[in-house]
User: What shape does this take?
Amino acid sequence: MFITNTWYVAARSDEVVADAPLGRKICDQSMVFFRNAAGEIAALEDFCPHRGAPLSLGRVVGDTLVCGYHGLAMGANGRTVSMPCQRVGGFPAIRSFPAHEAHGFIWVWPGEAEKADLALLPPFEWLGNPAYGYGGGLYHIGCDYRLLIDNLMDLTHETYVHASSIGQKEIDDAPCKTRVEGDHVITERFMSGIEAPPFWRMALRMNGLPEDQKVDRWQICHFTPPSHIMIEVGVALAGQGGYHAPDAVKAASWVVDFITPETAHSLHYFWGMARKFKPDDEALTAQIREGQGKIFAEDQEMLERQQQNLLAWPGRRLLMLNIDGGGVQSRKVIDRLLAAQAAPSTPAAA
Amino acid sequence: MFITNTWYVAARSDEVVADAPLGRKICDQSMVFFRNAAGEIAALEDFCPHRGAPLSLGRVVGDTLVCGYHGLAMGANGRTVSMPCQRVGGFPAIRSFPAHEAHGFIWVWPGEAEKADLALLPPFEWLGNPAYGYGGGLYHIGCDYRLLIDNLMDLTHETYVHASSIGQKEIDDAPCKTRVEGDHVITERFMSGIEAPPFWRMALRMNGLPEDQKVDRWQICHFTPPSHIMIEVGVALAGQGGYHAPDAVKAASWVVDFITPETAHSLHYFWGMARKFKPDDEALTAQIREGQGKIFAEDQEMLERQQQNLLAWPGRRLLMLNIDGGGVQSRKVIDRLLAAQAAPSTPAAA
Amino acid sequence: MFITNTWYVAARSDEVVADAPLGRKICDQSMVFFRNAAGEIAALEDFCPHRGAPLSLGRVVGDTLVCGYHGLAMGANGRTVSMPCQRVGGFPAIRSFPAHEAHGFIWVWPGEAEKADLALLPPFEWLGNPAYGYGGGLYHIGCDYRLLIDNLMDLTHETYVHASSIGQKEIDDAPCKTRVEGDHVITERFMSGIEAPPFWRMALRMNGLPEDQKVDRWQICHFTPPSHIMIEVGVALAGQGGYHAPDAVKAASWVVDFITPETAHSLHYFWGMARKFKPDDEALTAQIREGQGKIFAEDQEMLERQQQNLLAWPGRRLLMLNIDGGGVQSRKVIDRLLAAQAAPSTPAAA
Assistant: This one.
């Protein structure tokens, strides 16, 4: 159901403050995140080995997370450090999860700890890149994480779900193409000589470009496992090369979608936008985040009601059209990785 | 559990407006209702054949219901009419349900479409009859539809549940008689020389009759399948013939109860009153609807808590007293029709 | 799961007023409590033998509880007394439960009625004793009743859960001792020469004692079946004998905890305090009740989240430390009584 030997975004950095732990369920595992005295992140099972209380109701003291029920002090490695009047040497350890913080995100590896490898963190070019201005948020959605992958790999839904903001009929009318490069699925769509929708008019203006001219527009959706979707979006003044036009005549961004499964039918959706213009304009960041937040909230009811429908009609097969190609190919990658995860390890020598 | 080869009230006409579809579950089937350009009603499974989104989140365009997710345009017959950039000929159909609109109600046939027959619509004399003034509403109640049948076929509950409005001790004290005529169950009660309760005082006044004299009162409950209950109610000045008294000395109405099962333990309750006096007095219609709405809301907690009790004590047998005869006989009719529905069809020639 | 041949607190006396019945589920049985004309308490199944309506929606008339649906009048013994126009002789009885009222509490015996014995009511010395002032309240908590027993038999949680009121680090640091005397489990802790926490400063003041001197403090938790926990708490001026000091130099109370299981994962918590000072000061009673109510509410989230954790990790074994001894021993008593309850009765002669 879930790829677990991989890195997921567990939280935004600002969700885990110095003193207070954060409880969050990821891939059906209740976890607690906290910072030690140096500010480093630890991730543990949210279960005190003493009597099963959630450690996320406790507080941080020094390098330990102190249970809010009877004062057991838990270390970042899942071993009890101390407890009033108790010898804790024989206390059973709880599970700790590899965790890492970088560029405003806290990552967690919910699978086999010995396979965790920082080299496997995704190398998105906008992450920590000062040429980009980033803003985003977090939504909780009650659906299978793969329904949101489908959603984001088929942007024709913008015309219907987001008709008043980023949608436009030309999206529907432009054919899309999907290709697969290893575990990487790319669905792209190019529109030529169209009107810019409101968001892109603003972006053109911010780049000192005229907003009332025809533009070429692109949407290039990139799926990478387990469930990260980065979408290159942008417009260029028409006829200057489109996606390949020089920076001086275009406006471009990455739409950021980190999807982290919570349970079989719910997920944490870390959405955002990394824009390649006016990176330090914080008022603009706030304005875009607010607008994007409203738009992305429009998907929630559709996704949750779709999930309910699929549960109510479990035997019904869905269509797989060309527009669905991105989702279909992404699910094939996921299925392949899930099968590999379930298979017994190859013996070292046979 | 449900009789399905029959007509149920699915909605009031005003619930399905020109542009917006209405989603409603009937007999455990999620349906969507919409009007084509000519205003005619269609009923479909609430499931887009593309990716399973509920069509009830879409909108009506011309004669089609356009899915709010990716723009599939569905026809009234359950076949896809079009979808941007797609050939839709091979798309699987979804189920359509026979539907019919008449006299302010939308009817649906949730069973085998080929057996649907407009001649089987119930011929209530007040429906569309200008001699009657009608007002009503819709409640959602969390109980088996048969518990509401029991409720309405035994009006002694008025004395207890509706003590302050239509209840009076004389109802309890007057014996009732139940008879069965084919699928039609009738429970009737006649009270002679009693005080009129508040509702009937008002009705007498509206008919230009004295409200401070003794009256004869009647309640004649008619069950017809699947779960329609029409109750003839009225009062006549005492000693003038009661139910058979001339119109000039009486006031009479039909209490209307269309019960439509939603699930095994919930229902849609279309209640109303068709009064045979001042049919065009809209202020009176509004006043009666408000009063009736308050009274009928008093049954909700009792029905839902009774349902919970029956689920908690599943083995417990209930009493079947004479006052319960109407419900008992109605359930026998239902059981007979359910058995016939479950039986294999008779071969044409044996 | 539940000891049933025993007395539980079902309600505070003031919860069952003259006219209105009270519905409450105890040990998974839906019960209704009401008073007859003489004010005596009866407890019955909350199920009308007519059609299964909850009798708790009815009202009391004379010595009967009249069903709010169709008027069946039920007697305190579970037999129908009358019903309009019906002969009720053959109506099936519903179950009645032995009930008893004393000193402000209503007790019920949910098990075999023939084993109910008033001599088995617990003889707490403060109950009905004018030397004590009593105030308390009722909370509904979503956890197994045994988790609350654990909570109350291990007061080290005060340091963490109730840090701002009754908790103090010295509780953690003082060893506790647990002993078992038959079915009675006692966990006690004594602290010497410490600062009095805020509640006890107030109590010293009320007893005309100085509040700024060192004190000796004690906590003696008494578990008796099925799930009553009485805690002797108090302080004495330091060095005067502590728990055994003369009354003139100490302040003492009983913390009262009647735990009544509702379902496998919920309970009714009747909490209170019987103080051995200023027993008639009603303003003080109100002040203490308010303070205690706030403190005891702090346990609710912890207990409910602990319950959810235990359900999510069913295979995980918990630690049993010395501080947990009181809970562990109490559960052993419960397990022994549950086993005896499940065993076939000993034959009279073998």
